[in-house]
UniProtKB/TrEMBL annotation:
The keyword Cell membrane appears for this protein: no
Keywords on record: Hydrolase
Organism: Roseivirga seohaensis
Single GO term (MF): RNA endonuclease activity
Residues of the Metallo-beta-lactamase domain: 15-229
Beta-Casp domain ranges (all copies): 253-376
PANTHER family, sorted: CLEAVAGE AND POLYADENYLATION SPECIFICITY FACTOR FAMILY MEMBER, INTEGRATOR COMPLEX SUBUNIT 11
Record-linked CDD domains: TTHA0252-CPSF-like_MBL-fold (cd16295)
Protein name, as recorded: MBL fold metallo-hydrolase
Length: 466
């Protein structure tokens, strides 16, 4: 058997992860992500898929983030008609994330039609909710650590990656005619010693390794998050205002709830209500209640006991309940999405609170260049919302260290658990600078012999005549 590899994304970029394995005539795609961020990357989503999608036999997903799963509806639309294997929690999250992504695509197309700037006439969505539903019907949920046959003579095993609920390191075992080979995909790796998620599972060997490198060039020290949050809440309330937090719906919101539950139950902050004002964050929180064994918050608690049911947490799903928060003037914490202030319900909160000097806006995540969140954080005096320049008069705070990605030290810690160097290592899912830095560390500190940073659409012969 011959095994070839082609990088259809996630090479020298953090988005669009798609790794194609060809085993003689059969094809397996690992991850099926959307390109995001810079326009030049996003346009790749519209390119003709570089091969006949009907010839792919199966897809394996490491986790549900859109940059790993968001191309699924498109590839289904292009004719892919095989099983999509992922963990149980990933399957649940996909239902929320893919439907949301499809809705966004449809809204964007409608908006483009309205504004008349689309090059398509009428404007097209990259995919629609029908495509997303079709993709969801093809998902096959798999239990962690139970090998499953994904192709004839290929098994996949999922190990907890500790990155988001359901995230996995995927190990593929290939049984050739004469030899067995093991290919490991790190997926996105989480951090060590986190309150919400478990540590990334230790892998000890592989013939070929794909390792992510999002933060391959920096350490994100998470120093006393609890203390920092307590101090920001207290100051915000001393200022006689509310604390508004734009947050990602999956993972980040639940981590914040963990911290606020602790701070409130140990009286480190004054008693107050915490409003979770995002339907996606609420659905995602509910999934953390269902998939109890996939995170650490259920440890030591009764079967129906969850910190997320804490009475001070107010889950607001409807538009009316969301609008009612605007009349709250002080001593409340409001968590809403999107995390970078690019859309969603956070917009009306910003519209209302940015100009209030008593309120505090707290960023808890990376703000990408060009986003409204980044501009506010960089100190722009006004922000244009609903066509109006809103003056930024509230206090603006920022906490680092809540990232869901392993940093440089943690990537090296995970790689350091290999008992023998992989025969071949591909450093993926990182900007060139991060990938380059990690690749140097792997070569110099661990003496790994063959470490490569592949390019978009590059191909390799992995094994011949096995
Ligand atoms: Zn991810």
């Amino acid at each position: 058997m011959d095994v070839r590899l082609k990088f259809l994304g996630g090479a020298q970029s953090v988005t669009g992860s798609k790794y194609l394995l060809e085993l003689d005539k059969r094809k397996l795609l690992v991850d099926c992500g959307l390109f995001q961020g810079l326009k030049e990357l996003r346009l790749r989503n519209w390119d003709e898929f570089p091969m006949d999608a009907t010839t792919i036999d199966a897809i394996v997903l490491t986790h549900a983030h859109i940059d790993h799963s968001g191309y699924l509806p498109r590839i289904v639309n292009e004719g892919f008609n095989g099983p999509i294997y992922c963990t149980e929690a990933t399957a649940s999250l996909l239902e929320i994330l893919l439907m949301d992504a499809a809705k966004l695509q449809e809204e964007e197309a409608e908006f483009a039609q309205h504004k008349g700037y689309s090059k398509h006439n009428p404007p097209l969505a990259l995919f629609n909710t029908q495509d997303a539903k079709k993709a969801l019907d093809m998902v096959v949920p798999i239990t962690y650590q139970e090998p499953v046959n994904v192709l004839e003579s290929v098994t996949a095993t999922f190990f907890d990656a500790g990155h988001i609920l359901g995230s996995a390191i995927v190990s593929l075992n290939i049984q050739g005619e004469t030899q067995q080979k093991k290919i490991v995909f790190s997926g996105d790796l989480g951090r060590y010693n986190q309150p919400l998620l478990k540590d990334p599972y230790a892998i000890h060997d592989a013939d070929v390794l794909f390792i992510e490198s999002t933060y391959g060039d920096r350490d994100n020290v998470a120093e006393d998050i609890e203390g920092q949050l307590a101090s920001i809440v207290k100051t915000a309330f001393d200022n006689d205002g509310c604390l508004l937090i734009p947050s990602f719906a999956v993972g980040r919101t639940q981590l914040l709830l963990y911290y606020f539950h602790r701070l409130l139950t140990t009286n480190q902050i004054p008693a107050c209500d915490v409003y979770i004002d995002s339907p996606m964050a609420i659905s995602s929180t509910n999934l953390h209640k269902i998939h109890r064994d996939d995170h650490k918050l259920s440890i030591g608690r009764g079967e129906h006991e969850s910190i997320f049911d804490y009475p001070r947490f107010k889950y607001f799903r409807t538009q009316d309940s969301s609008m009612s928060i605007n009349s709250i003037e002080r001593n409340a914490i409001i968590i809403s999405a999107s995390g970078m202030c690019t859309g969603g319900r956070i917009m009306h909160h910003l519209f209302n609170r940015l100009s209030r000097k008593n309120d505090t806006l707290l960023f808890v995540g990376f703000q990408a260049e060009g986003t409204r969140g980044r501009k506010i954080l960089d100190g722009e005096p006004t922000s244009r919302i609903y066509g109006i320049e809103v003056p930024v008069k509230c206090h603006v705070e920022h906490i680092n260290g809540l990232s869901a990605h392993a940093d440089r030290g943690e990537l090296m810690r995970w790689a350091g658990q290999f008992k023998e160097a992989p025969k071949m290592t591909f450093v993926v899912h990182g900007e060139l600078k991060s990938a380059h830095h990690l690749s140097l560390k792997l070569k110099e500190e661990l003496q790994w012999p063959n470490v490569m940073i592949p390019r978009y659409l590059e191909s390799f012969e992995l094994f011949t005549g096995i």
